[in-house]
Amino acid sequence: MTALQEVPAQDAQAPAVVRREALHFALRNGKLVTGLAIVLFLLLLGLLGPVLIGGTPNAYGTRPMQPPSGEHWFGTTTFGQDVFTQFVHGLRTTFAVGALGGGIAAVIGMLVGFVAGYRGGLIDEALNMFTNIVLVIPTLAVLLIINAYLGVRSVGAQALFIGLTSWPWAARAIRAQTFSLRTRDFVDLARLSGANTWKIITREIAPNMSSYLFMTFILLFGGSILIASSLDFIGLGPTEGISLGLMLQNANQWSAMQLGLWWWFIPPGAGITAVVGALYVANVGLDEVFNPKLRET
Amino acid sequence: MRRYFGRKLLVYGLTFFVAVTINWMVPRFMPGDPVSSMVARTGASNPAAAETMRVYYTGLFGLDQPIWQQYFNFWATLFQGDFGISIWAFPTPVSEIILGAVPYTLALMIPAILLSWVVGNWFGAYAARRKALDNAVLPIGYILTAMPYMWLAVLLAWGLGVVAGLFPVAGGYSFSTRPNWSWDFFLDLLHHWTLPFASLFLAALGGWAIGMRNMIIYELESDYSNYLSALGAPQRLIRRYAFRNAVLPQITGLALQLGVLVAGALVTEIVFSYPGLGSLILKAIQNQDFFLLQGTFLFIVLGVLIANFIIDIVYVVVDPRTRAGMAGAQA
């Protein structure tokens, strides 16, 4: 619980009453607290697990196809690999792809959305057209082509390409929000006082939709994880190391289902579902904290 | 309305152009040399044979010509419907292999997408502002949207296929039969189709239900709803109006979700070894069959563009504001 309280605690130090009110509602919001607790638990497991357990995730063991036991918590694969070791390493990769891919997509989405929404006119037209084009192209299909031609695939490259292709909806949403803010009085005032575009966007517009931006990032984070797991499953995952998607791919490739090795394919899928689902639920909670209209009673 | 369709068609045209350009660019500008990897894969140990193959493949890609000419040649062959020859199923043309797989993918995707959209919207609209139902629909919806498509497919295949033995878990039809126009074969197809369909349907269902629920709550808070209830209109009527307004963003959402749905269908097919485009992609990747992979890519892009256009037409039919030239859907 200590780790849980640390995140909102940073807000509490700010003097603003609004922040303290947000914290008040944040700590009392069941969805936010539960979602964050699950995400933080899995994050810690992914960060600390590999350190505590040691060993390499793909090392072959001597006891293949063991069901879960005290020695192998999640059992072993057909090659004797320990599923729990793979799971904690995979969690780490999953969070890395989510943070990197979601982060890159959020940065591009914000840049395009802010500039298009604030500048308007021809720049908006051009950026909007560009956004629509990237939006219509099926992301996974593009990633398939790119990754198939990459000889050596790393987690970083995977996250980079996911980030480069999954930003359009975020850009559209941020553009719409910026559009509604740009005619407000305080923005006019900043413009009159001679602030340049960059300063107005970072000082006036972005802080006024910070909660919205944060929630966009969470959705992009979850989306990146799901896309990465699909890529891994098709066989275009990282060439080295392990991820939850790769575990599913291995299980499917070596017929874990037909052999009845349920402990091989249940944990990785459950891990992805838990991370993404908890993020979505926490997002709904955040929405309620920031938007009084949505709060229950 | 002409302007609306004009804009849409321009975006789709440009998208196709960009997709073809990506398709042309990736093999040429990615690190690594596809020609040498293809030569290496054939395992020609004799240097003279390897050199002959290198020359053959270079000529096949047209890599010995200037870049701009390669690009125009690429478009020219494309318009002749020539996607190259598959390496995995040599010497069948790629277009023939893809056309054989497309019906399976469409038979899986179209019913699953449409049904999940209709049923999901219905559930969501019904659950909104009904405490007990909402508390059930919301968590289930979130779990379903967070689930990777392939995991749900694996769970269904394992539970209903392997353990319960109710459904086959691999292939589009029994391995002992050949495709023919008999009633038995149709039943066999249906039997194999059920699980992949159910998996796709369920995975997509949650997102629609949640989206609809949120839209209905939003609509029920709007002025016209408050006005109607102040007039004493029955709740049923207000909900019906709310539903009509809430469906519009859901139609746009369907267009936005197409890419995700296609991706979901591809991995679902891989789990069930269903003989559609997903399994083709898997084979292309496993066999380093780049022609097949690139052909499939273009087919998928084309399919998504056509589907987008159909959704645009439906939107115009459903939303009268777009027809009157008023602010309705934005291009």
From TrEMBL, chain A:
GO term, biological process aspect, one: transmembrane transport
Which compartment or compartments is the protein found in? Cell membrane
User: Where is it mainly found?
Assistant: membrane
Listed GO CC annotations: plasma membrane
Q: Topology versus the membrane, per the UniProt entry?
A: Multi-pass membrane protein
Record keyword tRNA processing present = no
Q: Any idea which UniProt keywords this protein has? A: Cell membrane, Membrane, Transmembrane, Transmembrane helix, Transport
Any transmembrane segments, and where? 32-53, 95-118, 130-150, 156-174, 212-231, 261-286
Domain named ABC transmembrane type-1: which ranges?
A: 91-285
The record's similarity note reads:
Belongs to the binding-protein-dependent transport system permease family.
UniProt-recorded name of the protein: Peptide ABC transporter permease
What is the source species?
Planobispora longispora
From TrEMBL, chain B:
UniProt cross-references to PROSITE patterns, sorted A to Z: ABC_TM1 (PS50928)
Which CDD domains is this protein grouped with? TM_PBP2
Q: Hey, what's the signal peptide range on this chain?
A: none
Q: Where are the transmembrane segments?
A: 9-26, 104-128, 149-170, 190-210, 246-272, 292-318
Which InterPro entries has this protein been placed in?
Answer: MetI-like (IPR000515), MetI-like_sf (IPR035906)
What keywords were assigned to this record?
Answer: Membrane, Transmembrane, Transmembrane helix, Transport
User: Its GO biological process terms?
Assistant: transmembrane transport
Localisation per UniProt entry: Cell membrane; Membrane
Q: How does it sit in the membrane?
A: Multi-pass membrane protein
Q: Which domain of life is it from?
A: Bacteria
What is the recorded name of this protein?
Peptide ABC transporter permease
* Keyword Electron transport included in the entry's annotation: no
Q: What is its main location?
A: membrane
The record's comment on protein family reads: Belongs to the binding-protein-dependent transport system permease family.
Report the GO terms under cellular component. Answer: plasma membrane
- Domain ABC transmembrane type-1, by residue range, is 102-311
Asked if DNA repair is a keyword of the record, the answer is: no
Which SUPFAM superfamilies does the UniProt record give?
MetI-like (SSF161098)
